Amino acid sequence: MLDPIETLAVTFFDFPVLSARAPDGRVFLAIRDLCASVGINRESQMRRLRADPDLSVGLQTFRIQTPGGVQTQEFLLLEHVPLWISSVTRSKATPEIQERLRFLKLFIIGHVHDAIATAAGLPAGSSRNIEDLRDLQRYDAAIQGIAARTAALEESQSKARTAWREHEERIRRLEEQIHSMLRLSPTQRGAIYEQVHAWARARADREDIPFGTAIARCWGALKSRFIVAKYEDIPATQYEECLRFIRHAYAEDTGEELGGDQMSLPGLNTK
Predict the structure, then answer these.
(1) Are 231 and 188 in contact (CB under 8 A)?
(2) pTM, 2 dp
(3) Angstrom distance (rounded) from CA 184 to CA 188
(4) pLDDT bracket for residue 267 (50, 70, 90)
C-alpha cells in the first residue's frame, strides 16, 4: 500500500477517472472508476485481474485522501489498462463505448502484429503482404526474440528497482547518521546543564522560591524557546544561540553577566 505523490481526475470513456502517481513515477488509474466508465462489475473484474499472472503485476493499492478521510483504493498500471479494458465483456457499455473498445482491441491486435513483422523483417499490415510462407519461420524467431528482450528488460528493471530501494535505504541511514551528528555533543549538553543550573540558582535567590521550582521553570523556558521535548534534542547548530538565550535570561534576572564562577557544579565534568 502506497501514498501517491500526486493525484488527478482525468476523463476516460467520457467518465472521470482518478489517476495517481506512485513514488517511483509510474502512473496508475482507479479500477473502480474504469469499471464504472465501461459499465462492468468491479468485484468480478478485481477477481479477474488478481487471477491473471501478468495483469496482476500492475495492481497497486493507494491511500487516497477524500473528504471523508483517507481511504484505500485499487489502481491498475496505465500500461496494463488497454489490454485489460479491451478484453472485458462490453455488453453493458453504451453503444459508443462498445465501439471504442472494439476499435481499441483491433488496434492492439494490429499493433502487436506490425511490431513482430517489423522485427522479423517482414512487411507490416495485412498478412497478404507476406509472399513466401517459409518467411513465417522468421516471424516465430521474432516472437522468441521479443520475448527474450522483454525478459531481459524486466530483469534489468527488477535490478534497477532493487538498486533504487537499496539507494533509498542508504540515504535513510545517512540521514539518520547526519541527524545524530547534528545533535548536541556531551560537552555541549554539559555546558548548557551548568548554565541552566546557574540561572536557576540566581532565579531561586531573586524570587525566593525553592530551587526545584526555579530549575523546572528555567528548563521549561529553554525547551519552549527551542520547541523541543528534551533539551538534548536542541540541534547542535543552535548551541551558541542556546547559550546566548540562557545568558540573556540570567542577566535579566540578576543584572550581571553569567561568568565562569557561576558555571561550576561539583562533580560535573564537561571536558
Answers:
(1) no
(2) 0.48
(3) 6
(4) very low
